[in-house]
Amino acid sequence: DWSSDVCSSDLVEAFRVALTEQGRTAAEIERRTDRMAQALLRKRSHVIARTELIDAASEGQQQLWQQAADSGILERDRARRFWLTAADDRVDVQVCEPIPFLNPDGVRLGEPFETPLGPRMRPTAHPMCRCVVTMRII
């Protein structure tokens, strides 16, 4: 989650304790814990960047559909949005997997999806979410 600062610092500290208990030198402990902290920071940065990029793309798609409806290109009453998961074993089973079942008929343009987290207009539903929204004309 976004609060992984605490988790990362806890991991680094546990690693430091384990190295100390193994009788490692202070220099080695410092070097190895610094490497671990940097690796965790890079991973967290990657998670945030990837999630924000997907979130921005999802918002762009939402705005495109809204503009198409506002200009009359898209018939608002016939358009239905559907939440799609990646449909693989990496899908978050608590957050994302239930969403298509909670919205079996899709939702109208401008209407939020029902989710386990409460109403949401679009993905992303959590860090590293790979869900997308598609539109069907009924």
Please describe what this structure looks like.
The chain is mainly α. About 50% of the residues lie in helices and about 10% in strands. The chain has 3 helices and 3 strands. The protein has helices at about 5-20, 25-70, 100, and strands at about 80-85, 105-110, 130-135. Strands 2-1-3 form a 3-stranded antiparallel β-sheet, with no helix packed on it. α1 packs antiparallel against α2 (about 25-70). It starts with a helix and ends with a strand.
Query: How many helical stretches?
Result: 3
Give the mean pLDDT: 92
Radius of gyration: 21 Å
* Element-level helix/strand string: HHEHEE
> Quick one: biggest sheet?
3 strands, antiparallel
Total strand segments? 3
Strand residues, percent: 5-15%
Helix content: 40-55%
Outline: elongated
* Strand arrangement in the largest pleated sheet: 2-1-3
- End-to-end Cα distance, whole Å, is 37 Å
Structural class: mainly alpha
Poorly predicted parts: 1-5
